[in-house]
């Protein structure tokens, strides 16, 4: 939720800021020194501003889609962690897990520091194997993602479907409410009917993906074949496709709502541009004041926490070391890519194991 809020804030702050910087850079490069530059408010200036703004919005839309795809690839899935295909059967899962056990079992590690890492990685591999070997949990994982691991009360497919449908209903109800509020406040004015129609269509498609025993054709016949053309791009599961489509639909409508006025009414775009500049400056000032207040409060709290150790240098060093270890254990090692990298590093340290023997992600 916080990522979505930051993305929405970025859509209404960054394009106007970047447009101003890009226009200044454009004039600095394109217009020779000494020649007059178009002044704000003139027809030429507004025309340049409008074109640059459209380019910036489209570029930001493409970047948002790329970022969503990149995050999904970095998060990975259990199939990638085991190095098996999406259609793998139980025999293939067991065979692959036995090969990974020979490489990553903790008993094969001699040093204590490497043993902890190996145990953590091996436990994750075992979890991947157990989920994919269980038809019910595999069905739920493919369609709803890793959050199903925390649904302890769900043991059958109807249980998972019931919880999944409830989450879908809450998501689309909340999204429709946010879009309605944004439209009421004047942020998204154009194509209200098509916006909610697309949202409803996506909701129906998501319910279809959840209740269908097989993967949707859009994924198997269109999306994944396209991804296979891209070097090193993995195939997506239904829950990853849904996550990508959610991001695409939301950001696309925000982008179109900003491009629409620029294309239909240049004069209104000029007035909106002046108004947006003023609003952006006010928002930046508020964000700056909020950031400064948070920083001051954090420094004050840190000072209060450190007061008992102010005159004890040894205690201060010990506390810094513990904080460093805490950050490493709870932030770095929880990352899926780092976890897989640790597994590869352990494999390379053993004699007789060729480089790259670990399953491809």
Secondary structure elements and their pairing?
Elements: H1 2-30, H2 43-75, H3 78-82, H4 90-104, H5 112-133, H6 135-144, H7 157-185, H8 192-211, H9 217-229, H10 238-264, H11 266-306, H12 313-332, H13 336-349
> Structural class of the helices, strands and pairings?
mainly alpha
Task: Give the biggest beta sheet.
Answer: none
Order of helices and strands: HHHHHHHHHHHHH
User: What shape does the CA trace take?
Assistant: globular
The level of helicity is over 70%
- First and last CA, distance: 27 Å
Written description of the protein model:
With 361 residues, the protein is mostly helical. 77% of the residues lie in helices and 0% in strands. The longest helix has 41 residues, at 266-306. Residues 355-361 have low confidence and may be disordered.
Briefly characterize the structure.
By secondary structure, the chain is mainly alpha-helical. It has helices spanning 2-30, 43-75, 78-82, 90-104, 112-133, 135-144, 157-185, 192-211, 217-229, 238-264, 266-306, 313-332, 336-349. The protein contains 13 helices and no strands.
List keywords for this structure.
single chain; 361 residues; mainly alpha; 13 helices; 0% strand; disordered C terminus; transmembrane helix; J_dom_sf
